[in-house]
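Notebook entry, structure prediction.
Reason for the run: the old model in the group folder had no record of what sequence produced it. Starting over properly, with the input documented here first.
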Amino acid sequence: MSANDERALLTDLYQLTMLQAYFDQGMAETAVFEFFVRKLPAGRNFLVAAGLEQVIDYLETLHFGADELDWLAGCGRFDRRFVDSLAKLRFTGDVQAVPEGTVFFVDEPILRVIAPLPQAQLVETRLINLLQFQTLIASKAARVRLAARDGLLVDFGMRRAHGAEAALLSARASFIAGFDGTSNVLAGMRWDLPLFGTMAHSFIQTHDDELAAFEHFARSHSKACTLLIDTYDTEAAAHALLPLARRMAAAGSPLQAVRIDSGDLGEHSRRVRAILDAGGERAIRIFASGNLDEYAVHALRDAQAPIDGFGVGTRMNTSADQPYLDCAYKLQEYAGRPRRKRSEGKATWPGRKQIFRHRDKTGTMTGDTLTLAGDTPPGTPLLATVMQGGRRLTAAPSLATLRDHVKTQLAALPPELRRLDPAPPYRVEISAQLRELARQVDARQR
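New structure, fully documented this time:
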């Protein structure tokens, strides 16, 4: 879904029922909400913030269409005066956020909305929806990148993504996190992502002879050809394509790679590499796919399998092992007074907050301080204003810029956090000032 077809009714019913009640009571003073993650998913040592650009697009274009207003007026739940007031609703608030691609941890707000209460409340559902998904995928993809080291990584997950928007946004999030491209053609058009693709087994099966299929495809795609060689017998196919590879090279259109999509990828890659090398085709690369994730890629790398690139799909695009984040968008201040939720297991820190990041002399991250927005402890503040008065302050950064930021962030992580195994938690210190404010709010609420 793009900003051009975003709908205000893509929300939870209770946002609108609350807005009706706020309207009835005249409650429209400034509210402050923050988005944060309560707990890291099992096995994760860090998260990578993503989705901010889609949030900004959504907020800038937020409005109720005439058909949405007509439906609300006719559904029997809402007062007509309230529905009529929604015709003028636009987002006029401010947003502070950490840059996309920033590594973050538990309880650290990566986005803050400051706006009249009805506006700040209404956007909760869609903001969580956008931030949670891309952050989830970018964080998984970053782990795949760390496992793959310098190997080629391609997003292969569109067909099993949970819907069209998920397929597009996972291609974007994985590219930011370090993938080299995607098979998703619309994502390539929309964000100028590098496109990669090979062929399906069905192409081979439509031919009576496998080698004829290889030659047919290679002649059609002489500038960039990767042949899928595991439809029948992987090693036999590698032997069979050698004469074709020599003919194509002599014609100035060398084969680029072969793809293996099934079986023992490590063992097949060793045998195929030996066959290609013995046939004088050392330049042909090996690309592997098939239910890969960071653990499988890491195991293949550790075993020194001669694989040059990986197509990673289902398990990354759905974050299969951890398919959701325990995240929230909570009220921190209303009408100038800090607010705090004290529910068991879900208590929040009140007020507007800032994250200060600490590094050692080598640039390695050593810990964060979570404190009030007005405090100035040592360290680098992470949240900055990105929207003011309902409008973005700067143009969207390029995805290349975001990729570079993620790369720098991952390099600055302590080595133990870059590993796939769970590590001791990164230190996030809650400042004395924030603790004192929480005490004061608790005392007032009692």
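Summary: Residues 148-317 form a domain with the TIM Barrel fold (CATH 3.20.20.70).
The old model has been moved to the deprecated folder.
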